[in-house]
Amino acid sequence: MDESAAARVITELTLGHLASRCLHVIAEFGVADALGDQPASAGELAARTGINADALGRAMRLLAAHGVFAHRADGYAHTPASRLLRSDHPQSLRAYARMIGMPAIWNAVTNLAHATRTGRPATDSASLFAHFADHPEEASLFNQAMAGKSASVVPAVVEAYDFGRFSRIADIGGGRAHLLRAILDHTPGASGILFELPHVVADAADLDQRPLVRRLGTRVYNGLLRAVCHYRGTDTHGLKAFKREVLLETARRCVLDRDVFARGVPHEWFTYLRAHHPVFLHPEPHGPGFWVVSKYADVQAVSRDSGTYSSFPVAPLEDGDGSTAGAGAKPLIVMDPPEHTRYRKLVNRGFTPRMINALEARIRERAVRILDRAIAKGTCDFVVDVAAELPLEVIAELIGVPNDDRHKLFEWTSQALSLADAGDADPEYFVGEDAVLQAQMEMFAYVQDLCEQRRQDPRDDIMSELIQAELEGNKLSDPELAAFFMFLTAAGNETTRNAATHGLCAFLDDPHEWDKLVQDPEALVASATEEILRWASPVMCLRRNVTSDTELRGHALKAGDKVSVWYVSANRDEEVFENPFHFDIERQPNEHVAFGGGGPHFCLGASLARLELRVLFEELARRVPVLRSLGPPAPLRSNIVGGIKHLPVDLSAMPVPSN
User: Fold this and answer.
1) Coil, strand, or helix at residue 634?
2) What is the mean pLDDT of residues 567-581?
3) Omega within 30 of 0 (cis) for the link into 313
């Protein structure tokens, strides 16, 4: 890691509220200086600096997870990033890191753009001037870091304030409104981007109760809004109306914008919709629009009424006639009762809780082998090396696919699911409709060969049972068997893979929750599994189709209308979940809808997914007491599947040998 990269690590952490506070503590008390050249434990550092040992331990664990310090078996050691926090470093950022935890700094940040452009000192703020008058050495270091005197550090500092990073409320942290206003001052086009960020222009009907306003303070919040109004040429007197107008306009186009979801779920939009437009008619560019159902109770009501809200076709939201869902035999997901009931009974027996629990020993054996292999590598892509491997191996065994062929399942399902995004899928997976058709033909040929093998040599797997099964006196056809195969492979690996990855991201963001699980995995893993599922919502939404005129929350829905039910929003419903944006592995009760809102389409593999997640995180907690991120997650570009494509991590920190 060179100095530029190290400076970027420090600066990126200033964008997060908790991390910035930890950096402030480390800089304020000179922990980097106290560490010296030899590793030391948190207790030793606490004794040298006079900091509370427990508080310092939490701060060091969080910063080590982000690569600021190295956490080794013999204690904490320096990295290039932490050396920038030493007072004796020629490019020291200690003064800068010390400032970020103080409210006074944000009264001066509006001068950052001017100082960066002109190279003049950034001390023309009265609040900072008084402090720097008493600490001239800090004034010199701060000016050097922020006013362009250090060629290797300042470009990284400025680059780290990429406006795209402010896409979620958590990225702002306390007091960052001034920073956003400074960016408006010197970043071309930034005001247009800021105008589209709904957490900045959120409705103010209950202003004092909104988390962002409580964090920033009403005065700072409204000051930021006035800055936005100024740059947009909007009247600043009608702030409340302005906020409502902007967020509603944003919400009208957010659900179909897959680039938004590629940056993370726009939870602020759904929070606004739940509060003000829980049943919302969303326009579409070339169609009549569709209804967005965002509240928990309504998601359940639609899910459980298959007579009024049909599952056929389960097409993209923009697809008016469902043409993408009509070829070949129908999979379970697009069937309605009684047809759905008859077909589901064919495979229900293999997915009962009793049958799934009997698999625990084999699943645990696989999980241990996969984790030990990843830990031995040290650095790995958690998605590819862990989260995808376990469910693929398990579903391949259940269906009857040889383990060596399991990655074919991943390729086929990923390409097929790309069609769910209406030809606007993630470029990493979308290969064109011709290639998807070719993949479907390959899968169909594979299923035919597999079925022929099972007819000659039946085994204890689901495909053997389906081949022998009869529906109304008839055997299933090859297209029906292929539809079952596709449905089971997609459902069997997508949910668990994405939930596991989102769960690890949540633990990386909140090391305290990981510490709790590490301390007592057996007692907490069950409730942690449920919170991971709520937090992840691997299937964000599904489409339903109105079969007859009806009413929902006072809105008249007509036969033929399209309805989108948003599980990812229902799982953050404030009326159901206390403090829904807090990841709490001890949350009780936790009646989430990650597996659907009930009714006939409740997830067939819910018991299997729960078991896989429970075993995976229990074994991971026993082996890796310290998690370390090596880079941000790469979200899937989809508004249907809440997926993560890649997550680089280091699982080698103080590993405990497996038993």
Assistant:
1) strand
2) 95
3) yes
The pTM score is 0.66
Instruction: List Cα–Cα distances, 602 to 330, 610, 639, 644, in angstroms.
Output: 18, 14, 20, 23
Q: How far apart are CA 263 and CA 171, in angstroms?
A: 12
Strands 309-310 and 287-293: unpaired
DSSP string, 226-287: HHHHHHHT--SS-HHHHHHHHHHHHHHHHTT-HHHHTT---HHHHHHHHHH-SEEEEEETTE
Compute the distance between CA of residue 393 and CA of residue 369 in angstroms, rounded to an integer: 12
DSSP 629: E
Over residues 192-206, mean pLDDT: 37
Residue 193: the pLDDT is: 35
3-state secondary structure at position 183: helix
**Portions of the chain given CATH number 1.10.10.10:** 3-160
Question: Measured between alpha carbons, how far is residue 313 from residues 287, 333, 423, 552 in Å?
Answer: 16, 9, 17, 21
Q: pLDDT for 532-554, tens place per residue?
A: 999 999 999 999 999 999 999 99
**To the nearest whole number, what is the mean pLDDT of the chain?**
75
Q: Which amino acid is at 303?
A: S
Distance, CA of 105 to CA of 95 (rounded, Å): 11
> Residues of CATH 1.10.630.10 domain(s) within the chain?
290-650
Three state DSSP letters for 323-392: HHHCCCCCCHHHCCCCHHHHHHHHHHHHHCHHHHHCCHHHHHHHHHHHHHHHHHHCEEEHHHHHHCHHHH
Q: How many residues does the chain have?
A: 659
- CATH (residue range 290-650): 1.10.630.10
- CATH code: domain 3-160 is 1.10.10.10
